[in-house]
Amino acid sequence: MPAAPADPPARNRTGTTRNTTTARTTANRRKERAPAMANTETALKEATTIEGAIGAALVDYTSGMALGTIGGGKDLDLTVAAAGNTDVVRAKVRTMEHLGLKDEIEDILITLGSQYHLIRLMKGRGSNGLFLYLALDKERANLAMARHQLKRIEAELEV
Fold first, then answer.
1. Which of 17, 101, 140, 143 has the most CB atoms within 10 Å of its CB?
2. How far is CA 43 from the centre of its chain?
């Protein structure tokens, strides 16, 4: 039985051939370096797939402005929620400073009668002063799972 024909050599921009294994390896390295979740829109879409999600926002708590929002509706204005939750984050940061606490806030939970409001402060390079905000329907949400998923989204988000 004859051997299977080898793949033809790949040609680079100059027209010279190169090893196809090297070409594939280089492409794989590029994929490995690419962030799993590169931007705000993708992160917010991912947040809305969390069971019970009503809406989500990425917020700059230095200005109170939402950098992106998704979901919400007539019962939840995410731009108003972004501004209001900015006050919550600022108050907690200020209180920690007054108490002399040298720790970091991971997240803040506000429990309402029918909703959970989860605020996850961003960590890492270029994300100082930002938080992810997620509103959940209390009846449908699994709070522990939502916290875990929001933590993963925060870790993958590059701003």
1. 143
2. 4
The closest of 78, 140, 69, 136 to 109, measured between CA atoms, is 136
With contact defined as beta carbons under 8 Å apart, do 130 and 65 qualify? no
Amino acid at site 21: T
Rounded CA-CA distance 17/107 in Å is: 53
Exposed / middle / buried, residue 99 (Cβ in 10 Å: 0-12, 13-18, 19+): exposed
Helix, strand, coil % over all residues of the chain, rounded to 5: 35, 25, 35
Highest mean pLDDT among 9-13, 24-28, 47-51, 125-129: 47-51
Q: What is the pTM of this model?
A: 0.74
**Which position has the token pair 């979901």?**
71
pLDDT at position 158 is 83
Collapsing DSSP states into helix, strand and coil, what is residue 129?
A: coil
